[in-house]
Specification:
Order of helices and strands: EEHHHHHHHHE
Radius of gyration: 21 Å
Strand order of the largest sheet: 2-1-3
Distance between the termini: 69 Å
Largest sheet: 3 strands, mixed
Mean pLDDT: 81
Number of strands: 3
Strand content: 5-15%
Structural class: mainly alpha
Low-confidence stretches: 187-205, 218-226, 228-234
Number of domains: 1
Shape: elongated
Helix content: 40-55%
C-alpha cells in the first residue's frame, strides 16, 4: 500500500545479470529495506567475525606481549585476509599467522560456512522484497530456491545488494575498514556496513539502468602456561 507522500521519492530500477545468466530488474533504494535487514540479521555473520577476531587478538596479546590495541589491529589484519579485505602482512604478522595456522584454519572454516549463508540470505531477501511486489511467487522465495540459481546470477544479485547495503557508495578504504574492525572488538556487534535500513513504496515512472559487472562474492597453551614465541631459524 503506497504512502500519501507530499513528494514521492523517485524509484530507479537496475538491470542485474547478463544474457548468459538472465537479466532481472531490481528497484534501487540505496539502502536495505527493513525486511531485508531483518532477514540478514538472522545470520549475524558480522558478530561472528567480531567474536572470532577478538578470540585471536586475546591469544596474540598474551603470546606476543603486545598492547591490547596493537593485538586487536594485528588480529584484524590477519582476519581481513579471510573476509576479502586486501592486506599485505608485515613479517611479524606473517610469523604469527604461521604459528596460529590451526586456530586460523578453524576460524576460517567457521566463517566460510557462515559467509555462504549470508550470501544466500541476502540474495533471498532481494528476491522476496524487491521482486515479490511484482511477482507474487517471488514473495514465497526461500534460501533453497536461491541455492538452485546459477552461480553467475546469484553473484550478480549479491553484488547489487552489497552496493545497496553501502548506500550506493564505493567499497570502504581497506585501512579504514581494518581500524573499524579493531576498534569494534569486544563490542556486541560491529557497526553496520551500509546506510540505516528503511522501507520504500512504489512510485510512478521507474528509471532503468544497467548494473556494472559483478564479481563473486582455538589453540592450546603449552604445559608451561605460555607457548614459545621464538621464530624459526631461516
Amino acid at each position: 500500500m503506497p504512502l500519501p507522500f507530499v513528494t514521492a521519492p523517485e524509484i530507479r530500477v537496475e538491470q542485474v545479470g547478463d544474457e548468459t545468466t538472465g537479466i532481472l530488474e531490481l528497484p534501487v533504494f540505496n539502502s536495505l529495506l527493513v525486511g531485508e535487514r531483518m532477514m540478514l540479521d538472522e545470520i549475524d555473520y558480522q558478530s561472528t567475525v567480531n567474536e572470532q577476531t577478538h578470540r585471536l587478538a586475546h591469544i596474540i596479546q598474551e603470546m606476543d606481549e603486545l598492547s591490547e590495541e596493537d593485538a586487536k589491529l594485528v588480529a584484524s589484519r590477519l582476519m581481513a585476509m579471510h573476509i576479502g579485505i586486501p592486506v599485505v602482512l608485515e613479517p611479524k604478522e606473517a610469523f604469527i599467522r604461521q604459528r596460529e595456522h590451526r586456530l586460523i584454519r578453524e576460524i576460517d572454516n567457521r566463517l566460510s560456512a557462515q559467509n555462504e549463508a549470508q550470501v544466500t540470505r541476502l540474495v533471498t531477501a532481494a528476491i522476496v522484497y524487491r521482486l515479490g511486489k511484482v511477482d507474487p511467487d517471488c514473495a514465497k522465495w526461500s534460501d533453497d530456491d536461491t541455492r538452485n540459481l546459477t552461480e553467475g546470477l546469484r553473484n550478480a544479485i549479491y553484488a547489487f545488494m552489497l552496493r545497496e547495503q553501502r548506500g550506493g557508495a564505493a567499497p570502504a578504504d581497506p585501512a579504514a575498514t581494518l581500524q573499524l574492525m579493531a576498534a569494534s572488538l569486544g563490542k556486541p556487534n560491529l557497526p553496520p556496513t551500509g546506510e540505516p535500513s528503511s522501507g520504500s513504496c512504489a512510485t510512478s515512472g521507474p528509471v532503468t539502468t544497467r548494473s556494472p559487472a559483478s564479481t563473486s562474492p582455538g589453540a592450546r597453551k603449552s604445559p608451561s602456561g605460555k607457548r614459545s614465541t621464538k621464530e624459526p631459524a631461516c
